[in-house]
Amino acid sequence: MIKNPSLNKKQIKIARALISVFDKSGIVELAQFLENINVEILSTGGTEKILKDKNIPVTNISNYTQFPEIMDGRVKTIHPHVGGGILGLRDQHNDD
Predict the structure, then answer these.
(1) For 2-87, which CATH superfamily applies?
(2) Domain boundaries in the chain?
(3) Which N-terminal residues, if any, form the signal peptide (predicted)?
(4) Largest CA distance in the chain
């Protein structure tokens, strides 16, 4: 659980994290931390491979969205399942 200052310092539980980075330094340690606090990890191809090589449970974003990467892998996370989670307002879009 983390404290979020924008939510009147209420603790919120992180259920899922999307990890997709170009510079992979420190990513294994971050993913291990998330795994230790029971956060489900979603990731794109290259990052997923590194995490799987370290036996960190990870779900490929294409499996989550049921939509493959397109444009030679340049488009991976543009999907309503992902964008909605990023852009949605917790109190206003719960049913969308």
Answers:
(1) Methylglyoxal synthase-like domain (3.40.50.1380)
(2) 2-87
(3) none
(4) 43
The burial of 39, by beta-carbon neighbours within 10 Å (0-12 exposed, 13-18 middle, 19 or more buried), is given as: middle
Q: Give me the helix-helix angle, 45-53 and 27-36, nearest 10°.
A: 70
Q: What is the pLDDT of residues 18-75, one digit of tens each?
A: 888 889 999 999 999 999 999 999 998 889 999 999 999 999 887 877 666 655 655 5
**14-31 burial string, b = 16+ CB within 10 Å, else e?**
eeeebbbeeeeeebeeeb
- The answer to whether the predicted template modeling score (pTM) of the entire model surpasses 0.85 is no
User: Are 43 and 51 contacting, i.e. CB atoms less than 8 angstroms apart?
Assistant: yes
Neighbours of 56 (CB within 10 A): 19
Alpha helices in the chain (DSSP H): 27-36, 45-53, 61-65, 80-87
32's tokens: 């291990």
User: Which contiguous run of DSSP H or E holds residue 42?
Assistant: strand 40-43
